[in-house]
Amino acid sequence: MIAPALDETGRRLLADERRLLGELREWLSRLDAEEAHRAALAASLDQLEEPFLLVVVGEWNAGKSAFVNALLGQKALEEGVTPTTARIGVLRHGERVESRAVAPGVDGLTAPAEILRTLTIVDTPGTNAVLREHEALTRDYVPRADLVLFVTSTDRPFTESERAFLEAIRAWGKKVVVVLNKADLVETEEDLERLVAYVREQAQRTLGFSPEIFPLSARGALRARLAGDEKALCTTGLPAFEEWAGRALSDVERLRLKMLNPLGVGRRAGQAAAGVVASRLDRLRDDVATLDSVEAQLAARAEDLTRDFRFRLADVEKVLLDFERRGNAFFEERLRLTHFRELLDRDRLRRDFERDVVGELPREVERRVEAIVDWMVQAELRQFQDVMDLLRGRVTDHQGRMIGQVDDRFEYDHQHLLNAI
């Protein structure tokens, strides 16, 4: 565990790191960020309480298991010859060499190697595994790694699948060390130096930095270790790696890498979340622009409708003014003394008024008001269709994130409009 090895300052840093990354996890949940990023961040935080995690990756025939066995000095891992039988092996310290399944595709392994007291080693299936779930499992473990040890080989140095894999893990911000295995297959020292230079160049281009590269023969080292032949072991290149690891992976450096692990995962998750936020902000800006367009359209239509309505209402008022003129003329004529007797005949007066003054007025007013209603309905329908065209475009952009539906049914109350006018 990391906490007991820290001083007071280190414990405060660890507490701050946990708090900040906890806040990030909360924001990722609120943003509905990718589950893979949230799970990776949670796993990396849990990893703070576990031993230093070394994850070994590479193609299936590059010699990853052989390298781990050479490092341990015993055959703790099976050196498979095909990718179809490969499983992830999580290797920890134990009194004897044992293996048992602990999860789908994952074996929990133990071995009585001193190095495993402070180190957990994960042996992964190849980056070019035939079964695609193997590669997915490998990538699930990489975000949790405190150090990634990438094994390539002299017979197939830095293949396309290796390049693609390193490109994929670059964003996690991991410290990567490269082992160039099968160095014993290279005939001359000059050829080996050229291979090392080639791998360094490709790694620099892919990772953005130049990692440590160690050419060695894993199987030769294991044979020498099992035979107790120190002279032969020195020729395999493994001691050079172990010397570097002893210096570079001191207690302080391992703690530093351990604490940097969740930060790298959090940085990647945060960058992904920032991309989500930026995308949503772009959509919101487009939504606001759409709403502004709708508001402007509604304002312009309201102005046009108000202006045109006054003209159309004037047509109705003209009919009423004609009615008023006829009424005034009718009473001016009937109120003369010569027609005084006719005023006493109320029924006749009513009939004459309805014939000469009212006439077709109700039907004429009804016809003209109906024309106004039809005009208003058509104007409303055109406005509704224009707005719906804008909204449907936004619905397409937000497909899958919409709550509810946009009601595109056009309805109006004819009688209500008629009564209002």
What does the model show?
With 421 residues, the chain is α/β, with parallel strands linked by helices. The chain has two domains: 219 residues, Rossmann fold; 141 residues. The protein is 61% helix and 11% strand. The chain has 14 helices and eight strands. It has an eight-stranded mixed beta sheet, with helices on both faces. A hairpin with a 2-residue loop joins β3 and β4. α2 packs antiparallel against α10, α3 packs parallel to α7 and α10 crosses α12. The chain is rod-shaped, with a radius of gyration of 42 Å. The protein starts with 7 loop residues before the first helix and ends with a helix. The mean pLDDT is 83.
Write out key terms for the chains shown.
single chain, 421 residues, alpha/beta, Rossmann fold, 2 domains, eight-stranded mixed β-sheet, 8 strands, rod-shaped
The name of the CATH superfamily of the largest domain reads: P-loop containing nucleotide triphosphate hydrolases
Largest sheet descriptor: 8 strands, mixed
DSSP strand count: 8
How does CATH name the architecture of the largest domain?
A: 3-Layer(aba) Sandwich
Cα-atom radius of gyration: 42 Å
Which fold name is given in CATH as the topology of the largest domain? Rossmann fold
Low-confidence stretches: none
What does the oligomeric state look like here? single chain
> From N to C, what is the helix and strand string?
HHEHEEEEHEHEHEHHHHHHHH
* Class derived from helix and strand content: alpha/beta
Given this structure, which CATH class of the largest domain is correct? Alpha Beta
How many structurally independent domains? 2
Average pLDDT over all residues: 83
**Number of H/I helices:** 14
Q: What portion of the residues fall into strands of 2 or more residues?
A: 5-15%
